[in-house]
Amino acid sequence: MRIELLHRLIAGTTTEEENRQLMEWFRQCASKEEFFMLFETAWKESPDEMPRDVQERMYRRLSRELDGEKKSAKVVPLRSRFFWKVWPRVAVASIIIVLSLLNYRMNDKQKQLSTQNFTVSAEKGQRAFVTLPDSTKVWLNSDTKISYPADYGMKERNVALVGEAYFEVAKNPDKRFIVEAKGMQVEALGTAFNINAYRDDSKIIASLFSGSVRVSYDDHVAILKPHESVKVDLLTHSFSQYADENMQDIALWRQNEITFDGESLEEITRIMNRLYNTTIYIEDESLKKECYIGTIRNNSLENFIDIINLTTSVIYENKGDTVFLKKRIP
């Protein structure tokens, strides 16, 4: 079994658990001679798969160890690798080689992890919930995507956001939690906040419900207190921090409700497009500037049209996946 693991280690096919088993064996190995013979056999029989720069580094390190012990050793190339013969009293040098192999394999694994990303998304007309590896909870609104690296939480906790999401961050003062959304960064240690950063919107809004966050955008920085928000206007590049009187309405989308506070019908239809995975086209230009205030349950597109009809007389027509809105003629 041990010789098989050594073969696989040299070939780079051992698992993390098998690496741990080998490391433990190295530490507890009572017979250095036995270990050396096994490793030498595995090394001779292994294919040429190790990168040349790794071969050379290991060769130089072994040579230094042998020179330091002033031992009689012969080192000759073998199949573009190296092979050595040493007396049993220097067999410990082979441990250095194996540890170098383990470090190389582990570092290579770490590099692979750092370039991989996990993505969670909620398509138009859907919502999603995910618990991150550190127990942070994230609710995703419609047409939203978050991504995080495979090594999330090893050093820092970094999340990229497109769309709107509500975060309840697991406390861990030793590892920063950072959300990046369209150039805005929101950093928290343990808190609850909402970020609205849809791709087709000209604004980004971060709103704090509890705890504390640090929000930065370009040269602007703000430390938010609960019930405060930051708004970035992407057209003017303005950055404003303010006490948000409508905080209770900001995350109502998690409860399947929508709140409008003076938004125009043109702005509202963009929201509806995401929520219902459809296209709403306003035929009458005068309708686009009509503004609405109120809260509705977004259980159906028809219900939304009925609410709009309470203040503005509109009619709609379905043509495939497109809904056409226009004023009703008296």
Task: Please give the structural blueprint.
Blueprint lengths: L1 H10 L4 H13 L3 H14 L6 H18 L4 E5 L2 E5 L6 H23 L2 E6 L5 E4 L5 E4 L3 E6 L7 E12 L8 E5 L2 E5 L3 E6 L5 E8 L2 E5 L2 E5 L3 E6 L4 E6 L3 H4 L6 E8 H12 L2 E4 L8 E7 L3 H9 L4 E6 L2 E6 L3
Parallel strand pairs: 7-8, 17-20
Antiparallel strand pairs: 1-2, 3-6, 4-5, 5-7, 6-7, 7-10, 8-9, 9-12, 10-11, 11-14, 12-13, 14-15, 16-18, 19-20
Helix pairs in contact: 1-3, 2-5, 3-5, 4-5
Describe the protein:
The chain is of the alpha+beta class and 330 residues long. Helices cover 31% and strands 36% of the residues. Strands 3, 4, 5, 6, 7, 8, 9, 10, 11, 12, 13, 14 and 15 form a 13-stranded mixed β-sheet that branches. Strands 17-20-19 form a 3-stranded mixed β-sheet. A hairpin with a 2-residue loop joins strand 1 and strand 2. Helix 1 (2-11) crosses helix 3 (32-45) and helix 3 crosses helix 5 (92-114). The longest helix is centred in the N-terminal third of the chain and has 23 residues, at 92-114. The chain is elongated and about 95 Å long. The model is unreliable at 68-96 (pLDDT under 50).
Assembly state of the chains shown: single chain
Strand % is 35-45%
Shape: elongated
Overall SS class: alpha+beta
Task: Give the number of DSSP strands.
Answer: 20
Tally of separate helices: 8
Distance between the termini: 87 Å
Largest sheet: 13 strands, mixed
Low-confidence stretches: 68-96
